[in-house]
Amino acid sequence: MNEKHLKAGLVGFGAWGQHHANAIKVTEGVDLVAIAVPSDASASAAKDAYPDADIYRDFRELVAREDLDFVDVVVPSHLHHEVASAVLETGKHLLLEKPMGVSVDECDDMIRLAREKGSLFAVGHELRLSSMWGKAKSMIDEGYIGDPLYALVELSRNPYRQGADGWRYDIDRVGSWILEEPIHFFDLARWYLEAAGQPESIYATANSRQPDHPELHDNFSAVMHFTGGAYAVVSQTLAAFEHHQTIKVTGTKGALWASWSGAMDRTRHPTFSLRAFNGDEVVDVPIDKPTGELFELEDQIERMVHAIRDGVPLHCSADDGRWSVAMCLAAEASVLANQKVLLADYL
Fold this sequence. Notes:
Blueprint: E1 6-11, H1 15-26, E2 30-36, H2 40-49, E3 54-56, H3 59-63, E4 70-73, H4 80-89, E5 93-97, H5 104-117, E6 121-124, H6 133-141, E7 148-157, H7 171-174, H8 182-192, E8 199-207, E9 219-226, E10 231-237, E11 243-251, E12 255-262, E13 271-277, E14 282-284, H9 293-310, H10 318-337, E15 341-342
Parallel strand pairs: 1-2, 1-4, 2-3, 4-5, 5-6, 7-10
Antiparallel strand pairs: 7-11, 8-9, 8-15, 9-10, 11-12, 12-13, 13-14
Helix pairs in contact: 1-9, 4-5, 5-10, 8-10
């Protein structure tokens, strides 16, 4: 095994970007040596927290450094294409927060760049690395429930954080609210049911508690059909409390039921469980370590290090990230048209 110590740069130091910085800090084999931030306040906070890192006000100066092995990009969605493209143009490896882009064309352009430059390009669907959500996937792949036929991925929580300058509540910058948290659940649904082919059609509906902002989908549900006959339900409400996520997957032989709850999404003290039925008995499946966004974020950085250094597969490729964007945009179109849409029109 190559034990090269990697150097990482980080673009973005907001609430989630600070968690990315900490994940890099606690990961063996990599040092956070450069941070790019947009404001004086962020620059001061970054320098206080990481005095050994170089702080830049222009991300282009960070990207131009020749000593960086990869760059972690955590900026508002509408900036993903601009910043990520700058990283890829230099041939550096890239970890990009979800959504990969706000359009499929943006995704295609970044994929093209990564291939031309030979760069590894991972997208931040960190739930795939969860000790519990990932365990469910491995059990499905091992045939525990037979052939998968149905998946429910559901979230009940309080409203989103607005983000710096309220960008997440600005439809011109967020692109679509479905590209925010529901994108994780579309990714999981497709991942769990991949033995049943690819998503083929979506019907989605949504409403808002805010009459002046119907584009802010407080309640959202979608039914997605796959080419092999399976289907998935992705559902979310932001009109609830705390953070509670559930998956249920059924197959020709059995079923899985996983649940996760916390006072907030970014907690290190959640409650969680995975129960399984193989057609004969129901069992509680042991989970070998805590699960939650903060834990998976650390796992994501570790996977990026091993992918660069040791050649292990990325946890979520750019092609998978593109699929997630396409599913969300198709769902948004379905909400607006109040009718089923075909995925082929968005791929």
